[in-house]
TrEMBL record:
Residues 27-54 are annotated as: Disordered. Keywords: Signal, TPR repeat. PANTHER family: LEUCINE-SPECIFIC-BINDING PROTEIN, PERIPLASMIC BINDING PROTEIN OF ABC TRANSPORTER FOR NATURAL AMINO ACIDS. It comes from the Bacteria. This is Penicillin-binding protein activator. The lineage of its organism: Bacteria, Pseudomonadati, Myxococcota, Myxococcia, Myxococcales. Residues 298-472, 589-700 form the Leucine-binding protein domain. Signal peptide: none annotated. TPR repeats lie at residues 98-131. The keyword Repressor does not apply. Belongs to the leucine-binding protein family.
Amino acid sequence: MHLAMEVLSASRRALVAALALTLTACPKSPSRTDSRDGTSGDDTTQNNRPRVEVKQDATANAALAQARTQAQGNPDKKQAAEAYLSVRKAYPATTAGQDALYNAGVLYFEAKDYANARKTFNELLFENPLYAQAEDAKHKLAVSAMEVGAYRDAYQTLISLAERAEGAEKEQLLKEAARAAEGAGLYSQALSSAVKEAGDAQTSEEKSAAVTKVEQLVEGRASFLDIARVQEGLSPSNPAWPVLQFKLARIYYHLRDWTRLEETLQTYLREAPNSTFAPQAKELLARATRRVEVRPRTVAVLLPMTGRYQPIGEAVLRGVKLALQGSDIELVVKDTQGDVNKTGTAMEQLAFDDGAIAALGPLLVDDTKRAALLAEELQVPLLTLSRQEGITDIGPYVFRNMLTNSAQARAIADYAMNVKGYKRFAVLYPNIPYGVELANEFWDDVVSRGGAVRGAESYSYDQTTFTGEAKRLVGRYYLEDRGDYAEAVRDVQGEGITDAYRRRKAMEKAKSGVEPIIDFEGLFIPDDWRRVSLVTPALAVEDIVTNACDPRDLERIRKTTGKKDLKTVTLFGTNQWSSPKGRSGLPELLERGGKFVTCSVYVDGFFVDSQRPATQKFVKSYRDAYRETGRDPGLLEAIGYDSARMVRQVLDKQRPNTRAAMREALAGLKDFDGATGKTSFNDKREADKQLFLLSVDNKGVNEINVEKEKAAVRGSGS
């Protein structure tokens, strides 16, 4: 029978075995006992208690820091690992020693020296199975074991990790476990014996017992490969045949192999129409058939309409409904509740039951990953509204229309360098994922355009004073490294002042006389407007002049300092600089930051006071439709509106009747004029658009006409 032979081909084994593991509980070796922390086998300890009582040690920590510096500068990962192991050897009973052991293991792993990686991680986990990075160490240990041929140990560790994992991580672990299982040859002979026993049964009791055993093996231990082998050539007259055939069908369903699924179910219903699983087989066949039954005017939206994220879901939905007003498009709203599992269920429902030709959303990162994976499997065009970078890499059915961190960094760098002509920058950012990601994106973009980042300082997420960071940016923090300061100190000492008070005053004057080193023209601060209003006064204290567009204030500073040539710095920010209006009617950023934030520029994906015609039209329509809320639309409403209008335009003008045709039409969308800008999808199905560059002055926030300014720059020949 060609069916089983094809599914057993080498190119498909890892995938089908992984999915079989998803549907079955895999066997554990009776000679091994799982430890309470989820590890098993010879690779890790069975004792949850650390074998070494580790402690903090300042000298060890310093040695670790030195080893880390050496490792970062060494392209040879194996040599870098040795630097860490020297710390481990010198300070074995310290936290630094264990961190060094972990880092050495990672470097060996990255260098593909799996034997040493396995040895190192084994040692670490034996001593301390509760180590902070234990899960990662176990994973790398398992992969290393697999690479050196220790498949059984690798399999048991991977399975234990997969039992506690979720989503894409779980799928990856199961795929790796399947590879390890195949290498270890863990193929059960029990299934063959049970099937033969069912065929040989003489009484109904014997037959029932044998079939029950087959069911237990199929659902408990046997892999897809075992089932496919046993089923090949098995006569439908064998009482176990329906169990195996329906199990194969369920696996094909999870593989999304629709052709084989339908063939398997049709054979099942023809040969065993009255069997136990016949009603389920009929429903599964009907469900598979419905996947291609598309309602061309039905669109789904996946949003958190209840739970903690309900407000953002409602905001997007207001925009979506406004875009579809007056249309015959049927909108199906799926409440994800911000739950990954519910998102997955919703995606399957809109594909199999609702017949939606496309879907909008979700918003949240984990929800979006699950939805995107299913959209690709089910081939449903998905226009996601998530900021998650790289989400469209999942496949050609995944699109994205949302302001991302990388797009903001590009827009700021482009404006600062191509319009303002700046080449040198500094970055001041919060040490949180948002700040770090944007700082890196901006830095990379500046360098790629031929610019330079002259300084970078980070601060804690809850910090409220920024004196130290401002001093470090301009070289006033480590004065002992400044030659001009050392010279001033020598002058004071040379004066021979004996009076302590006068000497202290002279030293303070020497400190205050050190000029700031301002070797950057722009300062990028990717943070919330509240924090920005606290940061900017600290910059002014260190003589960083940021209000360069105010000639009167510049003249005042010149008179106060006696300096004719002032080095000014332009502050740049992200959409988190957008703030609500305060009591004065001005944005709270300006109310709190005052003159220190004027002349700054930040980027956003939407600006309610924009003069762009499409934006104005949306704002007016929104205000008319939702007058009772008393609130203006924001980015979420605008993104929901534009995304729904894009889909509506495609459905109205091109009339696609299949999801494949809808995908092609959406991919070809160009110059859609929406509330968030003129939008086209690039070759990665990311929405390309001109973002809103906004400037701050003492009267409020104004949109910058970037094209006009670029034309002026070209006209001036600069």
